[in-house]
Amino acid sequence: MHHFDYIRGTLYAEGVAISEIAKDVGTPFYCYSSATLERHYNVFKGPFPQDTLVCYSVKANSNTSVIATLARLGAGADIVSVGELRRALKAGVPPERIVFSGVGKQPEELAEALDVGIYQFNVESEAELQTLSDIAVQKGVTAPIALRVNPDVDAKTLAKISTGRSENKFGIPWAQAEAVYDLAGRLPGIDVVGLDVHIGSQITELAPFESAFLKVVEMVTRLRARGHNISRIDLGGGLGIPYQTGNTPPPHPDEYAALINRIVGDLETQIIFEPGRLIAGNAGILVSKVVYTKDTGTRSFLILDAAMNDLIRPALYDAHHDIIPVMQPQAGYAPTIYDVVGPVCESTDTFARARQLPDMAPGDLVAFLSAGAYGAVQAGTYNTRPLVPEVLVCGGRYSVVRPRPSLDALLALDVVAPWLEETAK
Question: b/e for 101-124, b at 16 or more Cβ within 10 A?
Answer without folding.
Answer: bbbebeeebbbebbebebbbbbbb
